[in-house]
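A note from the maintainers: we've had questions about how concatenated examples are separated. There is no special marker in the raw files; a new sequence line simply starts the next protein. For clarity in this README we add a label.
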Amino acid sequence: MDKPKVSVLILSYNGKALLEDSVSSYLANDYENFDVVVIDNGSTDNTKEYVEQNFPKAKLVRLEKTEGIPAVLTLVWIMLLTKTVQSMQLLPTMM
């Protein structure tokens, strides 16, 4: 039987300094049908470039302008209607 798809979502706004530990730990798992999605909420600290350079296995969703948490979460749920959500992590800079 195929394992269900699991996605870990990491929402970040200027959280580049906090991404290394969280993204690395999620990418280190051995589950076969798994992905990590970093949602960059209009960051100005080069989060996009950092993720692209350091975590090529992670998927990146870049919002050009900063949106409120309700708008971002609505986007996330639309994106994941057919997927299983294992974890949603709000980095401290989002709160």
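[label: protein 2]
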Amino acid sequence: MKFLFICKANVGRSQMAEAIFNSLTKVHVASSAGLNPPTHWEGEKLSKTKHVAPCMLEIGINVSEKISKRLTEPMVKESDRVVVVGEKEDWPIFLKEFVKLTYWDIVDPGDGDRELHITVRDQIREKVVGLVKELEK
């Protein structure tokens, strides 16, 4: 199955979810995108983040070369399942109408400190592990 993880900017939560998911399964594949990445982040590598890349490296996953991407309708249509990690606001119609959509209410760590990023990473990891276990049934 093809999964798509979405958050606001595709700099933190959705990138974490994608990387953790892809590290746990070789049968399924995930990608990620942001609803509204700030222009200064679009196309930028996560190595520029203060906490995201380092906190992922702590669990053995290197996301430093990952790039922030803006969500498009084809991304959603090409996915078997979509998981939105974050706010339920400003969703485009094509996302709202997608049948196989899951919503995880996980706070945006944004400019938060290292501890907040670790907390968010661990919440996402717990959700992703559960998702992968569900797929293996």
